[in-house]
Amino acid sequence: MVSKGRLDPLMTFWEREGSTIGGVDTVIPEWTGERWVTLLQVASHAGHEDVTRWLLEEAHADPTIAVPVGGANARLEDESGHNSDVSDTPAALPAGTRRAAYDLGRTRGVRNVFRRMCG
C-alpha cells in the first residue's frame, strides 16, 4: 500500500492493525522484499507525497531513522533482532554523514513535505 501510494487503504489498515504491528517505525521484515527500512523511507523513495505527509503528520513516523549504508547484502537489525534488506543504498558515505528518509525523496513534492514539517 505504501509503495503504491494507496493512502485510503493504508489508513484503514493502520486503524485496524497498526498497534499489533509494533508501530509506524517498526523495521520492515526481510521477507517482504522491500529494500528500505521503514514505511516513511518507502513512501519517500516512491515519491508519494500524500502517504509521506500522512506518515509524518498523523502516524508520527520518525524522519530521523537512518538509511543503512551498505551494498547488496546490507542488513539493519532492530532491537528485536529482525533484519531488513537494504540493497539499494550506496556502498559508502563520507565519515560523519548519514542519510534519512528525506534523502530518499525523488521528487520536489516529497522533499517539500519534509521541509514543511521542519518549519
**How far is the first residue's CA from the last residue's CA?**
28 Å
Q: How large is the share of residues in beta strands?
A: 5-15%
Give, in spatial order, the strands making up the sheet with the most strands: 1-2
Overall pLDDT: 80
* Low-pLDDT ranges: 71-91
Radius of gyration, rounded?
Answer: 14 Å
Q: Treating each run of at least 4 consecutive H or I residues as one helix, how many helices?
A: 5
- Please identify the structural class as seen in this structure: mainly alpha
Percentage of residues assigned to helices = 25-40%
SSE order, one letter for each helix or strand: HHHEEHH
The gross shape turns out to be globular
How many beta strands in the DSSP annotation? 2
* Major β-sheet profile: 2 strands, antiparallel
Describe this structure in words.
The protein has a two-stranded antiparallel sheet with strand order 1-2. 39% of the residues lie in helices and 5% in strands. With 119 residues, it is mainly alpha-helical. The longest helix is centred in the first third of the chain and has 15 residues, at 7-21.
Which properties best describe this structure?
two-stranded antiparallel sheet; 119 residues; mainly alpha
Task: List the SSEs and their pairings.
Layout: H1 7-21, H2 39-46, H3 49-57, E1 75-77, E2 83-85, H4 101-104, H5 108-118
Antiparallel strand pairs: 1-2
Please sum up the structure shown.
The protein is 39% helix and 5% strand.
